[in-house]
Amino acid sequence: xxxxxxxxxxxxxxxxxxxxxxxxxxxxxxxxxxxxxxxxxxxxxxxxxxxxxxxxxxxxxxxxxxxxxxxxxxxxxxxxxxxxxxxxxxxxxxxxxxxxxxxxxxxxxxxxxxxxxxxxxxxxxxxxxxxxxxxxxxxxxxxxxxxxxxxxxxxxxxxxxxxxxxxxxxxxxxxxxxxxxxxxxxxxxxxxxxxxxxxxxxxxxxxxxxxxxxxxxxxxxxxxxxxxxxxxxxxxxxxxxxxxxx
Length: 246
Prior knowledge:
With 246 residues, this protein is α/β, with parallel strands linked by helices. It has helices at residues 5-12, 17-33, 51-56, 69-77, 113-123, 143-147, 156-165, 181-194, 200-205, 209-225; strands at 41-45, 61-66, 83-85, 98-104, 124-135, 169-176, 236-242. The protein has a 7-stranded mixed β-sheet, with helices on both faces. Helix 2 (17-33) runs parallel beside helix 10 (209-225).
């Protein structure tokens, strides 16, 4: 990410509606698809500044990994000890180390997303779960993607194929945030005309608190819905997949 974004993200992550929604989504998907695992061993790859990882530690034995030393530093400021700096190209864990692997808005940053998925499959135990989210639709590409150093956006079919190609069996795949598709599309189109567009720093810092509270409520509601239904369109994709035993 661009300089200063981790600092801004660290300040705003706990309250920002997007992060609120992602935390709710991961928790509800885990409890829907592997509800009987008490204190599961989880790995969050691309853990960033630790907002989700801190919540995972409340109900799981969770570790985190991020390529950025700045992000790892912010995690340690939170008191999160099971965090290391490393690459998804070669995860520093033994085969079958975790009951689940979480990758929230990570794979779109990588040149070799398929190789990273194979590494996640390797460290996941038989019967374990992958929960992953990625941005949707290349036609939504904007300055925000460039600020985040994205390599691509996906369709649901493309992402399912990558996950299955790594060895997982997809059990739930859906678009997310359907209410944002038209507004974001209009903003992207306007940005192409004016030479501006979505701005990551504005996303974090300038969302009025009443709107942030409203959006937080909407994404929490959506997190519950997508455990049982799939949306046909959206600005992101969520995927749940199993590593079959045997």
